[in-house]
Amino acid sequence: MLTTSSGTYGSYSFTNVVDSGVYYCVVTVTHGENTSQTAVEYTVSIAKVDQTITLSENEFTYSEGLTIDFADYVDGTGDGTLSFEVSDKNGVAFDFANGVVSNITKAGGTFTLTVNKAASDNYNAAIETFTVTLNKCAQTLSVSGTPSAPTWKQNFTVSVSGNKGALSYAITSGNASVDTNGVITASGAGQVRYSVTAAATDLYEAKTQEFSVTFSKAAGNLAPGYAKPTNLTICVGHTSDDITLPTGWKFQSKTTLGQVGNVTLTAVFTPSDTANYSAYPENFTIAVTNHTGGTAASCTTAQVCTECGDVLVEALGHNYNEQVDNTVRTTAANCQECNTYWYDCSRCGASAKNDANATDKWYTSNEAGEHNMSSDWTSENGQHFHKCTVSGCDHVEDTEDCDGGRATCQTKATCDTCGAYYGELGDHNYNYGSWGYTDENGHANNCIYCDAHTELQGHEPNVDAA
After folding, report:
1. How far is the C-alpha of 339 from the C-alpha of 333, rounded, in Å?
2. Parallel, antiparallel, or unpaired: how do β-strands 338-342 and 362-368 relate?
3. For a 10 Å CB count at each end of the chain, is N or C smaller?
């Protein structure tokens, strides 16, 4: 609208305004019914527009050969020429030229990126700063080991690939230890879990990863207590079970050894620690020999093989038909036994008396022997006597009544002959020479052997004292 001090009377317009400069405009004036149009020259100033700068990515992760061209990540408005500056490197190192990061030697930090857009015909110059993060790269670990299927008696060596940093190792579960070179030493069969750590570098993050290895049982010949049998021999006719083997060994099957000569059999050693050692089979040569006779058989002893103990000739048994000194042998009987008569063996001289299987070769008389009287007195019920010492005999002799000694109120009399107590307790023996007992009611005489006393006599006044 065209506005003057008198009011608003028309409008003006410009065409093809593309930059600051001098332009003509058409003015249309309207006042009531009168309208006029004229071209007037004006100088019009057109201001430039501000440019904007944005960064589509401000966090990057290092990789082998990584370059970053920030021109690829700058957005915004305007057409000014771009330029870049880097400052405030914190934990990072790299080359920078023309907006391009290259030759990265250290990551894991930040830096400040300044982006400039130069002024152009229609835009003002612009500048923005951004904090850019350059992360370290992750390490990827791959593990193998030798031997591929270890027993727990073998060391397992860990081989690692993919790491960038120095390696360290640790056991996380299982019975084992690991050294700085990744050599794992187990102390028993079973699974062992271990961790591998690749240390951080300037460009790579630290990485810890867990792996496992299973140690199988060791062969039984490595077990404690393993002892290989040697010089195995057995007499003909026996079985393999009759051969004495060291602890832990057993033949695989029971075999009858019926011919003299060498035989090969398989025996298995089973360790006591079956959790860590496997059964161990081994072949052995068995020498099968004839029996070797020992001492000839006697009445009571068989002839046996000196190698295996088998009976070769049974015991002969006694021959009870020998009379000694042309008469039968006899024992000295006591009051509880009768005289006994028996024969001796004609081969060995053994007595039929001691052979329960030869009762027809010995007999007893009908008369018992003599008593065996003790010289010591036995006391009982006020008498003493001598008693037979033979077990089971109640015969006594020299019975007399006990006599002598003196009974008191505390003890019975002692017999002068046998020394035993007998009879009844005696009367009290009061000491009439003194008043041994007194109380508030009177006084009495005490027994010299106990606390008994005579009947109390009442106290009387002391006249002389009055």
Report:
1. 5
2. antiparallel
3. C
DSSP for 397-436, please give it.
Answer: EEEEE-------SSSPEEPTTT--EES------B-TTS--
Q: Are 399 and 442 a contacting pair, CB within 8 Å?
A: no
CA distance readout (Å), 348 to 136, 328, 341, 435: 105, 16, 18, 89
pLDDT digits (tens, 9 = 90+) for 237-295: 999 999 999 999 999 999 999 999 999 999 999 999 999 999 999 999 999 999 998 89
User: Tokens 């810890």 appear where?
Assistant: 208
8 Å CB contact between 405 and 417: no
Enter the pTM of the model.
0.55
How is residue 382 written in tokens? 């006020």
**Cβ-Cβ contacts under 8 Å for 405 (sequence gap 6 or more):** 413, 414, 415, 416
Q: Quick one: tokens of 222?
A: 């490595």
Burial 386-397 (b: 16+ CB within 10 A, else e): bbbebeebeebe
Alpha carbon distance 371, 293 (integer Å): 53
Residue 448 in contact with residue 431, Cβ under 8 Å? Answer: yes
Give Cα separations from 346 to 1, 317, 352 (angstroms). 169, 11, 11
322 Cα distance to chain centroid: 73
Q: What are phi and psi of 354, to 5 degrees?
A: -95, 10
Long-range contacts of 376-385 (CB under 8 A, 24+ apart): 377/417, 377/418, 377/419, 377/420, 378/418, 379/415, 379/418, 379/420, 379/422, 382/422, 382/423, 384/415, 384/417, 384/418, 384/420
Residues with Cβ within 8 Å of residue 319, at least 6 apart in sequence: 299, 345, 346, 347
What is the largest distance, in Å, between two alpha-carbon atoms of the chain?
195
Per-residue pLDDT of 306-361, as tens digits, reads 988 899 899 998 888 765 543 445 555 677 777 666 788 888 888 887 788 887 77
Q: Are 295 and 301 in contact (CB under 8 A)?
A: yes
Tokens of 335: 């009051």
Specify burial of residue 330 (Cβ count, 10 A radius: 0-12, 13-18, 19+): middle
